[in-house]
Amino acid sequence: MEPLFLSxxxxxxxxLYREALHEVYIPRIQRGDASFAANVLGxxxxxxSILAHFFEYGRWGSPxxxxxxxxxxxxxxxxxxxxxxxxxxxxxxxxxxSEPRICYEHAENLCHSLKRPYLLxxxxxxxxxxxxxxxxxxxxxQVAKRIYLLAQxxxxxxxxxxxxxxxxxxxxxxxxxxxxxEFAIRGLQxxxxxxxxxxxxEFGAPAVECLCYKALTQWHLGEIASCKATxxxxxxxxxxxxxxxxLVLALNHAWFLGQVEGNLAEVERRASEVIExxxxxxxxxxxxxxxxxxxxxxxxxxxxxxxIAWIEEGVRDNYRVSGAIVGMPYFLALKAEAxxxxxxxxEALEAIKEAVALVERLELxxxxxxxxxxxxxxxxxxxxxxxxxxxxxxAAIRTAKEQxxxxxxxxxxxxxxxxxxxxxxxxxVRGFRLPxx
Length: 437
Description:
The protein is mostly helical and 437 residues long. The chain contains 21 helices and no strands. Helix 15 runs antiparallel to helix 16. It is elongated and about 90 Å long. The relative contact order is 0.07.
């Protein structure tokens, strides 16, 4: 493909923008609607090096202008390169990066003026991803509802599957697990009955996303066997669709299930897969999470110094590289566990405090119950005031029950029962150690 890439770049350098797009980039590099170079070859970084030439230097939201007759980009072409750049910038720089947001904001304005509802769907999906990673969930939910309304107006099954997936994800991170499951199941019902193919290039197949969040809901409802089967189906579907982004995201959710079940081998395996795929295909989206999970597994297996180093690097990269906030309460909880195992429990409490602040500021309540439970564990180890410990345990149990998470409620109740058992046998010793899971 390298000669074709160079041909497109040379065309741009000569001011032949329309020719570079119409003769090289669309038909020969991307092979029309197949998105061949992106989805089959996975060379999104190389595609961005081409697309950058269609924009003013360093300004992704500003398509370039030319004096060469007949070579200026029409509104349709501008819209095309904005949505292409938005997709590949998201993949390579992360869903919380500012560059794709700028592209999608400009694309949305063009979609309205050009009356292009399907590309408006793409632009709104990009806006939703950025909001999910950086904003309050109430704001993210409003964008998700706009996508749902657009799908209803178009009466388009493929758009509706995508709309159900974003509503499922948004409700999941708000802690509304049952509502998440309802939207995920609805999206899957449409997908199974209609067998539709989207008219736009998606950032990961929505059907795979729906399967992942159905599996996560099943875990919260205590349906562990069903949860594992659903997640395995999500991974298989991503592979069958040859959708690398969807596969990496599905593996990301699979490592979460391995972690909450305490399956170190599964966590190590899935984290290694995600790191290898993300590095090979230049996908920044979940790469920091892979490092964090690998660090947690190393810490739990006794290599705390090495594990904490991995976790801290992953946390820094999650902020710096992808700008993503949505996963941080969970990642900070893992960091806290590792610090506690390294006998640095006061620092573990600080990590929990930071996570709780994020939850309260951005409404990310999906791991809130577990943060309260871990806080109680750490306070117990430090011999803190019993009222504080009791309050944290009660908050964990109450939150889990309000969210109807059977699994999180069970974890909190079992740890609370162990706390009372050990306290009864403590013979006046103030601090004692509770299991982390």
